[in-house]
Design a protein that fits this description.
single chain; 241 residues; alpha/beta; 7-stranded parallel sheet; 4-stranded mixed sheet; 11 strands
């Protein structure tokens, strides 16, 4: 990870089109410079998070940050077209679509499972999703370095594009029509996993070709998303043997 420190360099970085994962601003920061950063970040669809002074200082670790830190990732991102083209080199392409996963530890764990399962690529939403932070990299155990990752603004439009390229869209849902191990995955699959609390958004689920569920026997009605993703990916892998 690379950090861009200071208010003026942050604004310059945003306006220059540099790939910024997230901007952190310490609570209590106000003024014209902060307003310009908020405005430029909104225009460029860059996530801004306000933190307590203690949390901010733990992240910035620099005295002259002036209450603003922009995190720039060295992660390479693929376009959707590149991801589709690369995935089609596999006998049965497998893409993983993550619908607003917000916890960096969940994201890192998902990346680790995805790499181990041989996923051809991962698609992230740009809004309301965790950026690829140092925590994500650490939890992924280095897997993020081997994955092809794409960021999109609109997941529904992305799904429509995948369908045009012969992908079948499989979403996980508590009220799925089939159990996860009742589907034949010997096809081009785009697996959709939903948000930690809300699951797959309604409009996204309506665009899935299949909705599947993992049987739950306990009193809690859902699994952690990183656990559920692992179960789904390795069932797909098993069924294709």
């Amino acid at each position: 990870m690379q950090k861009i420190i200071g208010r003026k360099p942050v604004l310059e970085a945003i306006n220059s089109g540099i790939e910024i994962e997230v901007i952190y601003i310490a609570f209590g920061q106000h003024g014209e410079a902060i307003n310009r950063i908020f405005s430029a970040a909104k225009k460029n669809k860059i996530k801004i998070t306000q933190l307590s002074t203690q949390k901010f200082n733990a992240i910035s670790k620099v005295e002259d940050s002036q209450g603003v830190v922009a995190i720039k990732s060295s992660q390479k991102y693929y376009s959707l077209e590149e991801l589709i083209r690369e995935s089609q080199k596999s006998k049965y392409p497998l893409l993983l679509l993550l619908d607003t996963i917000q916890d960096p530890q969940n994201l890192g764990a998902i990346f680790r499972s995805a790499e181990c399962a041989g996923v051809d690529g991962i698609i992230l939403t740009t809004n309301q999703s965790s950026p690829i932070t140092e925590t994500v990299e650490k939890i992924s155990a280095g897997a993020v370095s081997y994955l092809k990752i794409c960021k999109v603004h609109n997941l529904v439009q992305t799904i429509d594009e995948l369908k045009k390229n012969n992908f079948w869209i499989v979403g996980t849902h508590l009220n799925g029509d089939k159990f996860y191990n009742q589907l034949d995955y010997k096809m081009s699959v785009a697996l959709v996993m939903g948000n930690e609390e809300k699951g797959i958004r309604k409009l996204v689920s309506e665009h899935c070709d299949f909705l599947v569920k993992i049987p739950i026997k306990g009193k809690i009605d859902s699994l952690n998303v990183s656990v559920a993703t692992g179960i789904m990916l390795f069932e797909i892998l098993r069924s294709r043997e």
